[in-house]
Amino acid sequence: MDSTQILGYIGALIVGLVLGLIGGGGSILTVPLLVYLLGYNPVIATAYSLFVVGASSMVGTYQKHKKGLVDFKTGLAFSFPSFVAVYATRRYLVPGIPDTFFSIGNFSLTKDMGIMIFFAIIMIIASYSMIKNRKKRLNNSKSQSQPYYKTFIQGVIIGTITGIIGAGGGFLYVPALVLWANIPMKKAVGTSLIIITINSLIGFVGDVQTLNIEWTFLLIFTGIAILGIILGVFLSRFISGEKLKKSFGYFILIMATYIIYKELN
């Protein structure tokens, strides 16, 4: 095991710690960690991230279920269009993206570059939701249920985004469940985990059919991330996750800016 791999496993522990401490957002670090530190291309990195996110969310779902904070009926209903979109995205859309979108002079927008820039844009949106205290705003908003066909369309859109970037998308699913499915905020957070678990693992199945997976590395990386979650949940008894979330939001914003700068230079 070389020093780069050791740093990668330390990074996995940090991802888990963040997830355990603030309840979300940590998975968005997985792709940059795999790409820029461990040298994986974005397609492989987003695939591995889906597995890590799915396994981690499964642990989180169990923890929330013990507290009665998971609405399985709504979660499964919402996850159907999402996991179909995630699977189709990983199985057909991502492999079908051209290696080069376009070229202007010496500049070429490649597939890998496009995925990372799109990922950075989603990171910026996620950072905004953390910095602006979305939780408080959602608790104060008036929720109304909507026809299922609208939920279906929204699930497809969010699932497609999740499939492309390889992150859980909790920052998208939680407001969707609160504003569109009329679920209380705390239960929406727990319910989003079952959706993320199903989406991520089914999306990864699409990758297994098209990519060569380094199972030993992936399982060790995922196991360390899960240990980080368990440790983070323990530490959350002594550290305020809400106070950390805003600072982490700024960190994500800086990371997103770095990714865009690195990809365009």
UniProtKB/TrEMBL annotation:
Subcellular location, record wording: Cell membrane; Membrane
GO cellular component: plasma membrane
InterPro entries associated with the record: TM_pro_TauE-like (IPR002781), TSUP/Inactive_protease-like (IPR051598)
Keywords noted in UniProt: Cell membrane, Membrane, Transmembrane, Transmembrane helix
Keyword Transport: no
Entry's family note: Belongs to the 4-toluene sulfonate uptake permease (TSUP) (TC 2.A.102) family.
UniProt-recorded name of the protein: Probable membrane transporter protein
